[in-house]
Here is the input.
Amino acid sequence: MNFTTKIPIEKYQSPIDYNSKIVSLGSCFAENMGAKFDYFKFQNTTNPFGIIFNPVSIEKLLNRIVNKIEFTQNDIFFHNNLWHCFEVHSELSNPNKEDFLNELNRIVQNSNNLITQATNLIITYGTSWVYRNKSSEKIVANCHKVPQNQFDKEILSTEIIQKSIENSINLIQEVNPNCNFIFTISPVRHIKDGFVENQQSKAHLITALQSSIQNIKSADYFPSYEIMMDELRDYRFYADDMLHPSQTAIDYIWIKFFENYVSETEFATMNQVCEIQRSLKHRPFNPNSESHQKFLKNLQQKIAQLQQQSPFFEF
Here is the structure.
């Protein structure tokens, strides 16, 4: 008896391999998938400006990256003893104004290089709900704990989201026409917006995304949200907060991804990398023993062999 509904996933037409250069952007689920790419030593960069949830803010950053638009002092503000920027995540906030601007602009330049060389851009949208700063009338990526009365909360229409996605694709194609796009919707539940409101938000994203990419050959949709909702329809697969996928769920969705989006020719290498990663976590009872020294020597030989094939591997 089958106790789950399997989501059919077609094999990706441009499979990812170890020569691929991947840029992953979006919500905290993008971080989860990015961590998997990093674990298996793919050439991947995740969220250089930190976690970004909504399509408009992602488009705005892509526009800045592609057109090399530097941040200025008009783009930052001081609050709670730190300099912040409404376009980026608070993990980048800095007590020093000059250092903050220099770091933001360094990331712009680095990200431009990454985007122009990327073979695959993976974007994970988290929510349609956004906060608009009352003074600037601009949608922000992060509120940085600024008092809520300085923002208006609104939900993006499917039309606005669709236009934003199309703009994002066009921006990338201007500088990198060969880039392939993989879009997905985060399975994280944004219950602070409300139960009905969360479903409405995801529906807007799904509707807009399907309309945006249906006729674009280089764009594909991976059903992260649908896998969580249907194949993993059980609270067992949520973390303690009952909002984020558990590690078991993340592992399951990752398996679904690499089985269909990563070239099968790389599976053997992935297994070798996984074996080395497990070995590196090994904690010996006696570090000075002859057996452990032999173990370390064999491990270094395995790493050296892999690095001969792929010099960018770092353990």
In short: The beta strands are 21-26, 43-46, 76-79, 82-85, 120-125, 129-133, 139-140, 151-155, 180-185, 219-221. The longest strand covers residues 21-26.
